[in-house]
Amino acid sequence: MKPLFAIAFLSVGLGLVAGCSGVAPVEEQETATETSEDALVTKKLVGNYTYGNEGWLQSLNLNADGSFTGSQIVTCIKAPCNPIAISGKWSTLLGYLRLTQGSTSQSYSYTLKGDDLRLYRNQSLYAHVIKSTIDACSVVRCASGTKCEVQGDGTAKCVKTSCPSGQSLQLCWGSMQCIPNGAIC
Fold it and tell me: Where are the domains positioned within the chain?
């Protein structure tokens, strides 16, 4: 218990040296495996979230590939106090959302009601974020013969919808491609 206190104390101290303070990361070790219930929840959590009305996260983007990006709000001691970019890997485990940046992991209990996600740390609200309902394709213009499709990570991608004469559209190596009629990819 004393080493954990020392790590938390040192982390807070380092945050003050940088001019801003916040919640100190605490390293954790977990060895359990993901359950099928966790896998279903993981799919529901994928998306781009923005600041709700309270907490420490300005944005949180949980990607289908298990990566995340976002920005963390800081308590301002001396300007400038811009949000801090965060990124790493995320997972769910036994009812917790785990964010890992390098060798540091933080686990949060959470509630997800519709598009409303709340993260809790030590039974206190850490962040309230709301899933963005903006369709990524609404801001993308695709070339003729293509259409926009929203990918699993919420980003937009232009994909082919038609091919020149003598070719057909086929799924090859994870993307739609024009292939000569009768050929396989």
Answer: 2-131, 136-180
Sorted by sequence, the CB contacts under 8 Å of residue 87 that are 6+ apart come out as 67, 68, 69, 70, 101
Q: Say if domain 2-131 classifies as CATH 2.40.128.
A: yes
Q: Tell me the pTM.
A: 0.54
Interval 25-83: pLDDT, tens: 444 444 344 455 656 667 788 888 888 777 888 889 998 889 999 888 888 788 777 88
Question: How many other C-beta atoms can be found within 10 angstroms of the C-beta atom of residue 155?
Answer: 14
- CB neighbours (10 Å) of residue 47? 20
For 67, what's the count of Cα atoms within 13 Å in the CB-facing half-sphere? Answer: 7
73 touches 83 (CB < 8 A): yes
Quick one: which of 64, 52, 111 has its CA closest to 90? 64
